[in-house]
Amino acid sequence: MTSLTIKQLRYVEAAGRTGSIAAAAADLNISQSSITAAIDALETDMGFDLFTRVPAKGLMITSAGQQCLTLISDFLGTFREFESELSAVGGTSSGTIRLACFAAAAATFLPHAIATFQRQHPGIRFEMVEGNMDTVVRDLEEGRADLAFTYREVVADGQHFHPLIDLPLFALLSSDDPLSRQPSVSLAELFQKPMIELNLPLTRSYYSNFFRQSGLEVQVVHSSSSVAMIRTMVAANLGFTLLNAKPLAVLDDRGGFRAVPLRDDVAPRQFGLVTQARMRQPRAVMDFHSHCEAVRANGGFEQMAVRLP
Predict the structure, then answer these.
(1) Into how many domains does the chain fold?
(2) What pLDDT digit, counting tens, does each position of 90-108 carry?
(3) Which of 37, 77, 119, 237 sits in a 20 to 30 Å window from 308, CA-based?
(4) Phi, psi torsion values for 70, nearest 5 degrees
(5) How many CA atoms lie within 13 A of 28 on its CB side?
(6) Helical (H) or strand (E) element with 44
(7) Cα-based distances in Å from 282 to 96, 175, 272
(8) What is the pLDDT of residues 240-269, one digit of tens each?
(9) Are 76 and 206 within one domain?
(10) In-domain check, residue 309
């Protein structure tokens, strides 16, 4: 077999991960011909096709190709650990950390956590993989991320959850709504108002179910997979919503909405950091994990919560 370079394996892995030569080239910021050449070289060496090219659908991975790509992904993960450990000789943490983040919550805490970490570790760079609750743990499981941030209930077998903060339920209300002036609200006060619900896999109907469990039937008039869109709709007084993680834009009346804690006896949702169990992490990843624990101990994740006064 012809000697394959790490670079070629990364090109092939990107093609398999993205399902497209064009997407892989854009992801790695290289030419499409470089991706094609790497695939051709490996397929020639292996003696079989890793992909089939389907017009208008891109690359389809063959059964044998899937086995090869799993091996390549595992090898590249191990090589990244080697690079990080080698760079750490002499005591300097460096390398790249890939973070899979539940997009609805990440913006509230992640920039601050990264900024404070990089003051001590300027050689570290971060790659963000944003997604919904189940995709971020899948990104972790399939090797596209080193760490994931999400809620406890979606953690899969073979993964370990490290709690960072308990997040109580709260209502996001238009500043024009009289209930927004109260120090707290109840489900009984909200259920006759139109509701806008966050509509994501594993989150769909999660919030409206709290009303049903209390014997109340709320009318969901709108839904969206975007917290930013929901904020805009709430500000326009089209309805209220329920959330656990406080949006970054909740500042004051000028935002057009207010976050009001819920006084019903509803268990908080546990948000935290997820790692693959029994996996030895590169030093840079372990250092960032430790940093997040220190941020938690100092109350740095409290900005995500809306609590009763």
Answers:
(1) 3
(2) 455 567 888 998 877 888 8
(3) 237
(4) -65, -45
(5) 23
(6) helix 32-46
(7) 10, 47, 20
(8) 999 999 877 664 445 688 999 999 999 999
(9) no
(10) no
CA dihedral angle for residue 26, residue 32, residue 35, residue 36, rounded to 10 degrees: 150
Measured CA to CA, the distance from residue 39 to residue 29 in angstroms comes to: 17
Question: What are the C-alpha distances in Å from 45 to residues 1, 133, 165?
Answer: 6, 39, 50
Range from 93-107, 118-132, 226-240 carrying the lowest mean pLDDT: 93-107
For the chain, count helices (H), then strands (E): 10, 12
Residues 157 and 145: beta-carbon distance below 8 Å: no
Classify residue 1: in a domain, yes or no: no
- Which CATH number do you get for residue 21? 1.10.10.10
CA distances, 226 to each of 14, 47, 83, 132, 136 (Å): 27, 46, 37, 10, 16
Does 99 lie in the same domain as 80?
no
* pTM score, whole prediction: 0.70
Enclosing H/E stretch for 23? helix 21-28
Q: Are residues 156 and 173 in the same domain?
A: no
Burial group, residue 225, by CB count within 10 angstroms (0-12, 13-18, 19+): middle
